[in-house]
């Protein structure tokens, strides 16, 4: 099966992770553009280059397509781009003509523009460093109460709202294309949501027009990849804090239980009881509230005695956002990763973790069903996930004050050695890098 996969940008979780997952399946060919065409934190994707690249692909069974990458040059540029509605419309019309010539199933998503609740403008327009929290408050109050007294200069507010209107109108065009039959699947992602906000209102409007919305963003290409691959699999979910599954994760607008259900449905998985399920999805969820190590937001770590399921299982570790629960990982390693273990993730938001993990499980299931499973690629994927989500995000990152490869490499050695024993894998780390020159993400190169 040939899958044309367009990443959101050049981050390792967007560019490197899909290939790590599909390498487990010897009958999957992932066709992915050269990395230099993709956008980064401050650089838009080379859209003309991507048009030429897509046009050069002669045959593909499926296309995984983040529409923001073409329309705006990436997810982050979708919030910053000064281009007009007419300019964006011309660009996506060109995309439509190219896609129609491929005659492939197209699995696409477009974002509902996020509203981050901080005064950090690294991924937003320049004025966010002064007015980000006020814009969030304006958005939240306008939805919840119908008005807001947030003190925002009119020119700033008008610019922000006009960018939102442009993106919303572009999303309505995609809905028309869906009705024309262009897409096999079209999803509108709700990135970094709260319970209230003009972004939530937009999502509701898109739903009223027939659109499908899902909480999350960066993981959705992987969830769509899972949808495109293989037969339906059955999954039973076990929450380690079952009485708390109605709580809402950081950066999301639905409960962790609904987030799990939405990711499973989109990935092409069927909910089943424990005895009949193909896989057990173990969710290390939180009590009271989700923690976040890097933001110094503490929460109770896992403190029960846990026994691994006696059938195929994978672990979504979402007790903390942006990193693993060290207490749970300690037990996981002490119990040992036997042949029933099918994957681990603790990447960023709950939706990010769930979508990436479920994709890996679905690909693994299809590969094993067809006797095309590559066990070395599976161990490589797990090594990267544990080194990133556990070793780096939950431990080493807290000891760094700036991106420093030498210091990072030295501090990661002990975790590497522990993982070699746990995974029974003789791997070596070829390199670490900070692709966006910040501590938020790390890239792990495994031999």
Describe the model.
With 447 residues, this protein is an alpha/beta fold. It is built from 14 helices and 15 strands. The chain has helices at residues 12-22, 47-56, 67-71, 77-80, 85-102, 128-145, 154-179, 198-208, 220-228, 256-267, 326-335, 350-369, 375-392, 405-423, and strands at residues 2-5, 29-31, 62-66, 105-112, 185-190, 213-215, 233-239, 269-271, 279-284, 291-292, 313-317, 320-321, 341-345, 429-433, 443-446. The protein is globular and about 55 Å long. 46% of the residues are buried. The model has no long low-confidence stretch (mean pLDDT 96).
From the N-terminal CA to the C-terminal CA, the straight-line distance is 26 Å
The total count of helices amounts to: 14
Helix content: 40-55%
Radius of gyration: 21 Å
Shape: globular
Comma- or semicolon-separated keywords:
447 residues, 2 domains, five-stranded parallel sheet, 14 helices, 15% strand
Q: What topology emerges from the helices and strands here?
A:
Elements: E1 2-5, H1 12-22, E2 29-31, H2 47-56, E3 62-66, H3 67-71, H4 77-80, H5 85-102, E4 105-112, H6 128-145, H7 154-179, E5 185-190, H8 198-208, E6 213-215, H9 220-228, E7 233-239, H10 256-267, E8 269-271, E9 279-284, E10 291-292, E11 313-317, E12 320-321, H11 326-335, E13 341-345, H12 350-369, H13 375-392, H14 405-423, E14 429-433, E15 443-446
Parallel strand pairs: 1-2, 1-3, 3-4, 4-5, 5-6, 7-8, 7-9, 9-11, 10-12, 11-13
Antiparallel strand pairs: 14-15
